[in-house]
Amino acid sequence: MNNKTTGRSGFSSSFGVLAATLGSAVGLGNIWKFPSLTGANGGAGFLLVYLLATLAIGLPVMIAEITLGRAAKANPITTLQTLSPRKSLPWWLVGAGGMLAAFLILSFYSEVVAWVFAYVFKAIGGSILSSDRQVTEAAFGALIGDPLQSLLWQWGVLVLIGGILLMGVTKGIEGITKKLMPVLFLLLLLLCAVSLTLPKVAEGIAFLFKPDFSKITAGVILTAMGLAFFKLSLGMGTMMTYGSYFRDDQNIPATTVRVMLADLFVSMLAGIAIFPAVFSFGFAPSAGPSLVFITIPAVFSQIPGGQLLMIAFFALASVAATGAMLSMMEVPVVILHERFGMSRTKATVLTIAVLVVMGSSCALTNNVLADFKLFGMNIFDLFDFASSNVLLPLGGIAVALFVGWVWGRENFQRALSNQGALHNAAVTGVVFFLLRYVSPLLILVVMLKGLGLF
Length: 454
Ligand code: TRP
Fold this sequence. Notes:
globular, 17 helices, mainly alpha, binds tryptophan
């Protein structure tokens, strides 16, 4: 649908809005990052902190981003500039920070997508389908330990994404994502069903749902909050950009809650599919980034037709990840295009070129650069840490402060109630209170404590 007043295209139906927003939120954050972080940080306690962060910070910030985007109908930089009464304040920094975060995230995200793509082919070959820990671990190790394979798969992914953007078929991809998502969902359900029949299911479920508070440190809390930002695509301008495509009669709080619940549901399914297998086959829950790649094949090896299903699983995960990548890429591309006067083609080529260079350092992290450390982290982890635990929260603080102290209650209430059409003053009031006082302070405290700054 073309919006007559602005000439910008937007989402045409209420379901379309929900599906597109969910398409950005659901990705490797759910299938890969959530299980590996939950495993590495002690299980249920981490999950609980993550849930609290989602409610007290994620939801209000998501509502704020979407509302701002819809009110200004522009890219993140222009949005904050137009809505701010005082033009002298550097609100463009939010857009600039978002762009930096996008490059950092895409650098390592594209490498994980590369592993997922490679696994589609490995699954076809059949060699990874095994419940023998040594086999699946060796297969993953061989992939990430090989610099050439890591680089080529990643560049392939980047070129593919660039091609999709250049051909302008992003909308087409979103259409495909929308249709294929339910299948991924069903496969996850099937994996859960299989996982729940494994011998050590009780241990896996207890790990996921029985909190052990002794594992919770300031660093763990920061990681959980970073995950909440990452999974809901917040703090970087993605949701603001998507909000600018929202319809004016869309109920923003209701949509946001649905996206959050669906996103959480997918993550829980991934957790239930993985942790019983972790204990049953003797994997370490703290295996980190490799967790999904070593356990999922083991679960599939337990069912007839497992190989075909595994091919389907990794293929669908590639599609979901591609959708999420496109939504991230949109931020630098739209900023370079609208603010720096580049054509969309030039903006896309430049973005991909930067990513090929920056991303290579992540592809080489597990081989050539294995011993290279900065701030005690390898490059892959450093990019992940700097984006999720620093830049996205900073973006969240800025958005919350902007709504709470600059844009103000009246504008926020009017926008969120669709100019008075929705009678949601109570909800709006609570969200506004959270944005003005609670979320920014909470984010700041968690960040400073987690970074060991006080
Ligand atoms: N949320 C996506 C996932 O879970 C990743 C993502 C897309 C993202 N857009 C984002 C993360 C913007 C941070 C910011 O895989």
